[in-house]
Amino acid sequence: MSDTIRNRPLAAVRRDEEEGGKRNLLYNWIQIVVLSIFLALILRAYIFQAYSVPSQSMENTLLIGDYILAEKVTYKFRPPMRGEIVIFKYPLNPDKDFIKRCIAVEGDTVVIRDKVVYVNEVPFPDPPTVKFTDSRLLSGIYSTRDNYGPKVVPRGKIFVLGDNRDNSQD
């Protein structure tokens, strides 16, 4: 033993060891918190993001106020496929996120006739959660909601619709 430890009272040595242990414990907790925050930021930026559903455009699939956690990795490796729900920046206001269903992909021809969506001349298989709240059929002159197209989806683009077809800004 060194002379300094040998000449100090045992209580003082124990007190110093306890304080050192408390400092190590505090340091370990700070490391854990900082690492957790760092990992959360990385996950949010590149892997997952939480969203709150702000509108009725995807009812009955997603309801106003629902919280969803979306992963961001899949579409870095492949484009969206027909029928998948996608989250994207609204082209007219990139600060807004929109949630819609992918109906058609690049090269597909889309036609809506009397509220029935056709992709490449085949009726699109709507999931059971799709709803229509307005029994009126609007002419293509006044609105493209019920009658639209034919339009070919451009390269690198997709065609999306909300599941609440009569109350979705598509």
What's the architecture of the largest domain in CATH terms? Ribbon
Give the number of domains. Answer: 2
Q: Please state roughly what percent of the residues sit in beta strands, choosing from under 5%, 5-15%, 15-25%, 25-35%, 35-45% or over 45%.
A: 25-35%
Main beta-sheet strand count, sense and barrel state: 4 strands, antiparallel
CATH topology of the largest domain: Umud Fragment, subunit A
Helix percent reads 25-40%
Strand line-up in the sheet with most strands? 7-6-5-8
* Shape call: elongated
Give the tally of β-strands: 9
Distance between the termini: 80 Å
* Broad CATH class of the largest domain: Mainly Beta
- The chain-level structural class is alpha+beta
Radius of gyration: 29 Å
Ranges where pLDDT stays below 50 over 5 or more residues in a row are none
Secondary-structure map:
Elements: H1 3-7, H2 10-46, E1 48-52, E2 67-71, H3 74-77, E3 85-90, E4 93-105, E5 109-113, E6 116-119, E7 122-123, E8 148-152, E9 158-161
Antiparallel strand pairs: 1-2, 3-4, 4-9, 5-6, 5-8, 6-7
